[in-house]
Design a protein that fits this description.
Strand content: 15-25%
Strand order of the largest sheet: 1-2-3-4
Structural class: alpha+beta
Largest sheet: 4 strands, antiparallel
Radius of gyration: 14 Å
Length: 128
């Protein structure tokens, strides 16, 4: 996940204090409108998938707080709030995962959240 990212990049995590756990909805209130809308779209899309659970988790002094999405003990992705933007990392599929995510929904939802919405394509509703 930290490939090509410096410690200075991760230090910009908006939620840096281990003692202060952010609420699951914190980015909706703390981010600028466009980034909050992307977070809302990403979060809703992942939570709607069968069996996907959300956890706000402290990932250590380097990565700090992240929103983690997974099915059971299989992790799908992590979302970090870096400054006024989102940084998403997805678990790479390995040989043991063949056939388990046949619908391909998580990568589609992640891709939509990484880029600004295009007119008529997964555009979030106005406001967070």
């Amino acid at each position: 996940m930290s490939r090509n990212r410096s410690s200075a990049y991760w230090a910009a995590n908006r939620y840096g204090s281990e003692e202060a756990e952010p609420a699951p909805t914190a980015p909706l209130h703390d981010l600028p409108a466009a980034a909050a809308a992307r977070f809302k779209l990403l979060r809703a899309g992942l939570i709607e998938l069968a069996g996907v659970a959300e956890a706000v988790r402290y990932m250590g002094a380097s990565w700090r707080w992240a929103w983690e999405y997974g099915v059971g003990n299989r992790k799908l992705c992590w979302v970090h709030v870096i400054g006024d933007a989102l940084s998403a990392g997805a678990r790479r599929r390995g040989p043991r995962d063949r056939g388990r995510t046949a619908d391909g929904t998580p990568p589609v939802v992640l891709g939509a959240a990484r880029r600004p919405p295009r007119r008529g394509h997964l555009s979030p509703a106005r406001g967070p």
